[in-house]
Write a structure and sequence with these properties.
The protein is mainly alpha-helical and about 200 residues long. It contains 10 helices and no strands. Helix 3 packs across helix 8.
Length: about 200
Amino acid sequence: MASVSAAASSGLGARNLLQFLRLVGQLKRVPRTGWVYRNVEKPESVSDHMYRMAVMALVTKDDQLNKDRCVRLALVHDMAECIVGDIAPADNVPKEEKHRREKEAMQKLTHLLPEDLRKELYELWEEYEAQSSAEAKYVKQLDQCEMILQASEYEDLESKPGRLQDFYDSTAGKFSHPEIVQLVSELEAERNANIAASSGPPS
């Protein structure tokens, strides 16, 4: 009788995990709203954005940070968007309402997981939302750094240097981690050179 109960429980666990993975898989098909609103052709998905953020966390040289936790935070921070979508500032949804929707979505998502994983993923999301650790603050800066790197790449792909300046403006003064400050400085130097070259006198 116990084995039948264990098998039933295992089957339920597998079904719930499959449902969780299908929900998370929708992030592959949720476009990043900011690019959509700026008419970027073939805008990236939320999962595209989170993947590169996780890689950026993986290659940090800052041994004061828990690198594994940074990678986990990057992978979880936008997970709720598989249910609520990517709510952008231009949507004019109050911050409190955005948080409420995403909290409800994370509760729904993590409820599909065993209790230990449910607690881990939900607490990671809360940590990022509350910016309650050095790792969460670092990953928030990665989020914004990855965004302007992507903006630069879209400008290059479209051969329209400077077109997405508003994304850069929105991050002004928000970088403080030395590694990220250096990366952003290099990115902006390259981008400014491209803008200058495009507006220079014809040869």
